[in-house]
Amino acid sequence: MKSCEEINDQLSGYLDEELTQGDSQKVDVHLRGCPACQKILDEMRLLRNAVAGSQKVEKLQDDQWEKIVNDLPSKASAGTGWVLLIAGVLTLAGLGIWEFTVADDVSTGAKLGGGAVGFGLLLLFVSVLRQRLISWRTDKYKDIKY
Ligand SMILES: [Zn+2]
Prior knowledge:
The protein is mainly α. It has 2 domains: 4-67; 73-145. The protein is 88% helix and 0% strand. It has 5 helices and no strands. The protein has helices spanning 4-15, 21-33, 35-71, 74-102, 108-145. α4 runs antiparallel to α5. It is elongated and about 95 Å long. Bound molecules: zinc ion (ZN).
């Protein structure tokens, strides 16, 4: 009969089914007559199942996330995102221009420069908004056509 220490060294291989048939049978025989080693084996098995289980859960969550992302009406949310972004930038640019032009301690040059930057941003986003509107209208016409 093998000693507990020898068996403990082989328990990992025993769980992974990496032992030779002879060694595996020796472990089996020892475990049947040794509650202490049986307990260690049970704990190792629980730990492994917990690790395997947590990996399974992570995998599942990844799949679920992918599904959730795919299920989102991405076109609609992207459209809403654009509107919010443009509205926000327009508000900020407008406020910036207003603050700059009414502030007393800002030089006229800085006001002109800041105003130009603000207007540039404004025009940029108006043109982007226009393109979005045109593409939306084109989409609508496509829908009617089909
Ligand atoms: Zn033992």
